[in-house]
Design brief:
Length: about 240
C-alpha cells in the first residue's frame, strides 16, 4: 500500500470526532501549533491561501477568521472534506472557503496561484517529501509565505522518554476508550511513524529540502519541548 492509500485508510474512520479528539489527545497543543503556523502565514496579509491537508478545515477556518483571505482547502480524504464542509457551513464561512479533493503531490492549480500556503501533518504521508515540497512551492507567488506544522520527536532525553511512553502506551489506549478502534489504530501508528520519518528526514534535511524547493528565509520553531515543529519561509523570486 502506497503512502496516499495508507493515509486514506488511516483517516477513513476519524472525521466525526476528529476536531475534539485531536485536541484532547494532544493536551491542547495542536491548537497552539496551529496558531503559530497561522501567525506566520498571515503576515504579510494574503488575499488567497491554499491550505493543503486541510482535513476537517480547522486551519482553513482559522485563516479566514484571522485575515481577509479567501482560502482553498485541499485534502485527499473525501470523508474528512465532507466533515470540513459541515464545519464551514456551521461557522457560515462558505463564501470564503472552497474545498477540493486532490493530492498534495499534484495540485490542480496554476503556477503562483496563491499569496500563501499552509500544510499540516502532511509530509509523513507522501512518497517523496522533496518532490511534494517543490509542488507546494510551485503554486505560491514569489514572495508569498509557505508555513507548516507537524509532530516531532523531542530531542532531550527526559522529554523524549515521556513522549515515547505516551505515544506507545497511553495514546493507543486513550484513543480506543475515547474514539473506538479507528482512533486506537491511529494511536498505535503515530509514535513509530513519526520516529521513522525523522530518522529518514531529520529537521536539518527538511530545512534544506525547503530551500531546494525554492523557499528562502526558512524558520524552524520547536514547540512543546520538541513534540511539534512549525516551519515557515518565503517563495523565492
Amino acid at each position: 500500500m502506497n503512502h496516499n492509500a495508507a493515509a486514506r485508510e488511516l483517516f477513513r474512520g476519524l472525521p466525526d470526532r476528529y476536531d475534539v479528539l485531536v485536541e484532547v489527545l494532544s493536551f491542547g497543543q495542536n491548537a497552539r501549533w496551529r496558531r503559530t503556523m497561522v501567525d506566520a502565514a498571515i503576515h504579510p496579509a494574503p488575499s488567497t491561501v491554499c491550505d493543503v491537508a486541510t482535513g476537517t478545515a480547522g486551519v482553513a477556518c482559522q485563516l479566514v477568521e484571522r485575515s481577509e483571505a479567501w482560502v482553498v482547502g485541499v485534502d485527499l480524504s473525501e470523508p474528512m472534506l465532507e466533515r470540513g464542509q459541515r464545519t464551514i457551513e456551521r461557522h457560515k464561512l462558505g463564501d470564503r472557503i472552497d474545498l477540493v479533493a486532490a493530492r498534495a503531490e499534484q495540485l490542480p492549480f496554476p503556477d503562483a496561484a496563491f499569496d500563501a500556503l499552509t500544510f499540516t501533518y502532511l509530509l509523513r504521508y507522501v512518497e517523496d517529501p522533496a518532490a511534494a515540497l517543490r509542488e507546494l512551492a510551485r503554486v505560491v507567488r514569489p514572495g508569498g509565505v509557505v508555513a507548516s506544522l507537524d509532530f516531532h520527536v523531542p530531542p532531550a532525553a527526559l522529554p523524549r522518554l515521556a513522549w515515547r511512553v505516551y505515544t506507545r502506551a497511553v495514546l493507543p489506549v486513550a484513543g480506543l476508550l475515547l474514539g473506538g478502534r479507528p482512533w486506537a489504530r491511529v494511536g498505535r501508528f503515530l509514535g513509530p511513524n513519526i520516529e521513522q520519518h525523522y530518522r529518514r528526514y531529520p529537521a536539518a534535511w527538511l530545512r534544506d529540502a525547503w530551500i531546494d524547493a525554492g523557499i528562502v528565509d526558512v524558520n524552524v520553531r520547536s514547540m512543546s519541548l520538541g513534540g511539534g515543529l512549525v516551519m515557515w519561509g518565503r517563495r523565492s523570486a
